[in-house]
Amino acid sequence: MEQYESDRPAPARTAAARRGPRGGALLSRRSLLRASAGGALAAGGIGTLSACGIPPAGRTAGGVTTEDHSAKEKVVNFSNWPVYIDVDDSGKRHPTLEDFTRQTGIKVKYTEDVNDNTEFFGKIKPQLAAGQDTGRDLIVVTDWLAARLIRLGWVQKLDPANLPHAFANLAGHLRSPDWDPGRAYSYPWQGVSTVIAYNKKALDGIEVTSVSDLLDNPRLKGRVSFLSEMRDSVGLTLLDMGKDPAKVTDDDYDAAIARLQKAVDKGQIRRFTGNDYTSDLTKGDIAACVAWGGDIVQLQQDSPDVDYVIPEAGWMLSTDNLLIPNKARHKANAERLIDFYYQPRQAARLAAYVAFISPVDGAREELAGIDKEAAENPLIVPTKDVAARAHSFRALSDKEEAAYEAKFAKLTGA
Amino acid sequence: MAALTRAPAPPAPAGPEQRPPRRRGRLTPYWLLLPGLLWLVLFFVLPMVYQASTSVQTGSLEEGYKVTWHFVTYWEAVSEYWPQFVRSVLYAASATVLCLLLGYPLAYLLAFRAGRWRNLLLVLVIAPFFTSFLIRTLAWKTILADNGPLVGALDALHVLDVTSWLGWTSGDRVLATPLAVVCGLTYNFLPFMILPLYTSLDRIDPRLHEAAGDLYARPFTTFRKVTFPLSMPGVVSGTLLTFIPAAGDYVNADLLGSTDTRMIGNVIQTQFLRILDYPTAAALSFILMAAILVMVTVYIRRSGTEDLV
User: Fold this and answer.
1) Which residues does chain B have within 8 Å of residue A61's beta carbon, measured at their own beta carbons?
2) Would residue B186 count as lying in a domain?
């Protein structure tokens, strides 16, 4: 196929040149390409085919750690999601990171290169699988991917001695997720709530209070969207069916998928979306949807029509987690950065900007001093009553994850 | 690189022998091709070998992947995902036909009628490339919005009743339907159709048109007997440049489509990134390439032109 690429619009050749004799002694472009590609394939041959392959995870050659250069090199390479940290008015500087540098003398190379968990995993997988340094000391990924990285043995155990604030101030309900008991490998960056959002104008008086309303109300046909994040969409549906996502069985899961499939088949669900549901919701193409709390807070600032409801049956709470990948060169520096954000004051400064749920005890009181309105928003600081209805998806094994994702993919059309 | 350092030796000191310079001359094209060939080997052949290997492996991330010559993956991939294959071909073919219908008159205008506006118009054809592919596709969500003027007008004219009956749209909306995906594909690949058509048409000697007129051919006859046949290379390469990437595209189906418009590119993406079933993803990619290669070969044979532009 590549050969046609070379035939892209080229300067006109003279007719004579184009009509030149083909083949024979003269070099014919096509025959040459064909011959060389064939030759290379044949030479590489079967041997090469079998030589490829991916070694098993967890048995990384040369161990998971490397010499820690933290003392000599006062830097930390931090990979995070876009718009997930405080920004000053110029839009270029991050005040909390600058304070960290001022306090510790450690420079932060901050990169916003995590756009999607699955894609980011695809990006770092080759190096981690080969036991190489990814060039990153600290990454932020959603809990299920954090669980997978821990399961595969691709992240380093944290040193509690470097994390006094983190140990003291981590919120109680986040202390021991089933995929990382006692937080040996990870600390949450922010908590993410999954609830129901709607556009008041587009709803036009239709009442939406539960996932059942989204799935069954005929007046919403084709104007409902769910998230392409499997645990959020299925989790909320499970809760609506009275099942706990933290104890989901294969049968429960299949039942929830069947319930969603019915809604897809009758055209109730318009799409399964990533972050792009936000524009559909503000325009009113989507009347109601499963949405992320932090997004809603930000949307509400520009579109007064957008509102949300926390379902009676419960809502999904996931976390984005800080992890130190294998072979990271500045482990101790990374740990100091984690610890820095577990001081309530810094956590509150972060929460005031990003509008997600802070995992730090004491951040709420600090936040009230910075931004009173934010401190009273249950999407940023859940009240006791709301917090009691938070649920998380249980950790899945390698096989379960593949099977569940495959079933969910079938539901979403691919 | 080792091969590069063995570049042609400096000419031997002049002597009675005449041959060496000639032989060197015959090898020159091959040396000139070397960078291109290295490029192809490095970025086309090697990835293909790697992909071929992946497609016959089995395993999981935790246990590692080993080559087990598990060819069943191919059969399973086809039997499971043939609807998405068929859909991809249909969408890509529809988009290609639409591109041709829209692009030909435009390329014709550019080549024969644009006069001093030609360069400006050419820039306008390419201008959309100055913004990102994603943003251009997202713009279509605004253009086709449910409550937007375009969909409102189509609805008032009862066009949507017809397209809905044909299954191209659903109810009174265009977004998240096959029509939206085909619109996105058509828009995104239109320049790839126009540019080859333009180069082909531009090369036609205007005196041929005059001659046709002198021989009492009416304008349409001139087009049918002179212009169109001479533009065939442009038509063929334009359709290829449109069809091939459109068949593998997944962005348009992802952003403008719904669950029932997913194309094979979406399946490959999901298999590779979400389900982590690398063998199936590799097998699907190979099947797609093979299918396109067969279709393109048949097409080129039947179109009766060896020249592309």
Assistant:
1) none
2) yes
- The yes-or-no verdict on residue A320 having pLDDT over 80 is yes
Highest average pLDDT, of A9-18, A30-39, A156-165, comes from: A156-165
Closest of A320, A319, A296, A315 to residue A386, by C-alpha: A315
Residue B212 forms part of a structural domain: yes
> Within the 164-223 window of chain B, which residues sit less than 8 Å (CB to CB) from chain A?
170-171, 173, 175-176, 195-196, 198-199, 202-203
Q: Which domains does chain A have, with CATH numbers?
A: 75-191+319-379 (3.40.190.10), 192-317+398-411 (3.40.190.10)
Partners of residue A139 on adjacent β-strands: A79, A323
Tell me the one-letter amino acid at A197: A
Least CB–CB distance from B50: residue in A32, A52, A269: A52
SS3 content of chain A, % helix, strand, coil (to 5): 45, 15, 40
- Buried b or exposed e, range A303-312, using 16+ CB within 10 angstroms: beebbbbbbe
Total tally of structural domains belonging to chain B: 1
Q: By C-alpha distance, which of B296, B27, B195 is closest to A3? A: B296
- Give the single-character DSSP code of A179: T
**Contact state of B49 with A267 under an 8 Å Cβ cutoff:** no
Indicate which CATH number applies to the domain containing B234: 1.10.3720.10
Q: Which of residues 47-66 of B touch A (CB under 8 A)?
A: 48-50, 52-54, 56-57, 59-66
To test the contact with chain B by mutation, choose from A3, A32, A52, A150 the residue with the greatest count of B C-beta atoms within 10 A, namely A52
In a domain, B81, yes or no: yes
Instruction: Give the model's pLDDT for residue B20.
Output: 54
All residue ranges of chain B with pLDDT < 70 are 1-24, 305-309
- Is the Cβ–Cβ distance between A396 and A230 less than 8 Å? no
Domain of B250 in residue numbering reads as: 74-303
Per-residue model confidence as pLDDT tens digits over A100-158? 999 999 999 999 999 899 999 999 999 999 899 999 999 999 999 999 999 999 999 99
pLDDT band per the 50, 70, 90 thresholds, residue A47? low
- Closest residue in B to A18 (Cα) is B307
> Is B155 contained in some domain?
yes
Helix (H, G, I), strand (E, B) or coil at B263: coil
For residue range A346-362, what is the model confidence (pLDDT) as tens digits?
A: 999 999 999 999 999 99
The rounded distance, in Å, linking the Cα atoms of B287 and B98 is: 26
